[in-house]
Amino acid sequence: MIEAKSYKGINNVDFGSKQSIVTSVFGSPERKAINREGEVEFHFPGFVVRFDANSEDFRECTLLPGCVAKINEFLIDWSDGFLGWLASKDSDLKEVHGFVVSLRLGLAVAGFHDSDDSQKSVHAFRYGDWDMFLGQMKPFDPSI
Amino acid sequence: MQSDTLNSIDHGATSSNGQNGRAGAIYRAETARMISDGNYRGAMAREIWDVRRAAAERSGSWAKYNETITEMLEYSRISGQLPNNQGRVR
Fold this sequence. Notes:
The complex is a heterodimer.
Chain A: E1 2-5, E2 9-10, E3 13-14, H1 19-26, E4 31-34, E5 40-44, E6 47-51, E7 58-63, E8 69-71, E9 74-75, H2 82-89, E10 94-96, E11 99-102, E12 107-110, E13 121-125, E14 138-139
Parallel strand pairs in A: 1-8
Antiparallel strand pairs in A: 1-2, 2-3, 4-5, 5-6, 6-7, 7-13, 8-9, 10-11, 10-14, 11-12, 12-13
Chain B: H1 8-11, H2 22-36, H3 40-59, H4 66-78
Helix pairs in contact in B: 2-3
């Protein structure tokens, strides 16, 4: 099980940790890749860990459908009801480029509000990682 | 290109897919900026290249969506989103 803590990390691996710490906790990834931003990605069953392109520090974890995971002790059930939980924890959700973002919880989610299973994912990120989009964010109303 | 025109396996490999996290959002932002700057043709070309790359990676066929892409381009021309002579060298 993956246990994510807002702006802290996953399973006691803090954001900012080196790759060696991640592999010491989760083992060797199934696959390694480099994304368009030049970030190293470790692909594990059900989740992906990404490292900052410059510092190479752990900065983002992507949880994929079916992954047994908790966020701040809440068990993700991968239903559309997840947005309801998110809204109950953050009354100031944002939407930007098709993602629903909770700056309060340090989460970005895709595929829930538009019922697109091929994009469904929950991203726990390092503090400040989505600030580049602050000027483009719009309020998100989960009731619509 | 709309996600419902791609199979989910190929869609998962596109640069704009939500499962790419912030990198996907950055890609979407770049595309949106190209469109707002009036470079609709460039944005569409980039999307087509990306879909073809994803299909090649996941399905082994660069040409898998050629028919869909042709239909999309035709619609874009008819609707006026993609002027016929934009960018041509005279």
